[in-house]
Amino acid sequence: MAAVVMAAGAASAKAPDSFNLCDGYDAPTTRGDGVSFEAKMGGLFATYANYIVRRPVDPKASGVAACTAALADPKMKPEYWMRRASLLRARALHQLAGGDRAAALADLDQAYAQAPDPADLYFRRGMGAGIDLVRALVLRLGGDQAGAEALALKVFNERPYSSLAVNGAMVAAGPDARWETLEPMLKRFGELDPVVAELIFQSGVVDGRLQDTPELRSRLMPPEQLQLLGSLLPDAETQERMPPYREITPIDSEQGYISILSKKREGMVVRAFGNRSSILTAQEMSLLRAAELARFEGKRGLLILQRQDYIKFDAPNPQDARSDIQVVFTSQTGPEAKVDKAWRVMDADAIYLALSPLFPPKDRR
Question: Are residues 250 and 224 in the same domain?
Fold first, then answer.
């Protein structure tokens, strides 16, 4: 449901290898594992091990062999634990496509066991969250709806300000989830994505309140699950991949954010760039900056009028992940806000408190 513009660069001439066919990422090199950012210093310059490129993968039973081959590939150094977790997570989806839920759960157990510190913040937000989403789907398809919902809520609470993460949690929970599970996810999804908000408003908002209706569930919970969930899984997160929180100019090819006052459109556009970060992190940065600007103006609420997210998935260049949101600020939050669709107004203080610790304080302004 959440839309991301996928912008292709120069196409690669080589045929997909076992790594591409398994988890969608490029093969590891001597300098990097293909899923987490690393840098090595060489003289005065930093050489980046690899920009992160993930191409769409259609889960299918035949993908299991590709994952198994990738896991056994000599390029997989012992220290590439994050890539092993990614390959095992992907193999679980391929196992599930072939109907083998037991094998999928075994792969997810192995994937989680790769983490040296499962409690690490960035593992929880990235690879760990993705493992939980796949496990939730396996549990749900096996009849454990309660277990699936618990994991979906865990991921939602970990990353409640990324529309892609929220969408992934909804898909994992499924169309038969309890309303008390779906309601906070649907409300947040509508707050973050105006296109989704319109669907919700048409079929699920009555007298300014979100209501559980069959039409709402059918519109927002599509039947295709494996490929959709695979596309929504968070990338690997590390502290090194976090973009610096700083203001840049529109012509800079750097990571950071810009704020543009528009004479043609209401409010302002806040744009976040990250050439090593995931699109989920870019979404969070743009929202954090919007919340900061609201607080600077003494406003309590913000309303997203439009959003557009971009990823370059081939021949990476600077600004590979970009998230644009057009926002207006309000004096109040929720139904008290005197604006159209007041149910979508978000609390700027809550956003700031949740997201500001993720970015280095020395880069804050």
Answer: no
134: in domain: yes
Check if the beta carbon of residue 319 is closer than 8 Å to that of residue 360: no
The CA-atom distances, in angstroms, between 305 and each of 134, 190, 342 are 32, 11, 12
**Separation between Cα atoms, residue 236 and residue 34, nearest integer Å:** 10
140 and 248 inside one domain: no
**End-to-end Cα distance, the chain:** 34
**Do 205 and 77 fall into the same domain?**
yes
Copy the structure tokens of residue 239. 């502290």
* Closest among 235, 192, 287 to 2, alpha carbons compared: 192
d(CA 327, CA 350): 16
- pTM, rounded to two decimals: 0.89
Q: Give the helix/strand (H/E) hosting 157.
A: helix 145-158
Residue 239 dihedral angles phi and psi, to the nearest 5°: -60, -35
Mark whether 17 and 163 lie in a shared domain: yes
Is 238 inside any structural domain?
A: no
pLDDT tens per residue, range 45-83? 444 434 677 888 999 999 999 999 999 999 999 999 999
d(CA 92, CA 61): 10
**Which domain range does residue 281 map to?**
243-363
> Exposure of 180 by Cβ count < 10 A (0-12 exposed, 13-18 middle, 19+ buried)?
exposed
- Domain endpoint, select from 232, 260, 283: 232
Three-state DSSP state, 310: strand
Query: Is position 276 within any domain?
Result: yes
d(CA 331, CA 348): 10
In the predicted structure, residue 352 carries a pLDDT above the cut 70: yes
At residue 53, φ and ψ (nearest 5 deg) are -125, 115
Angle between helices 179-192 and 163-173 (to 10 degrees): 160
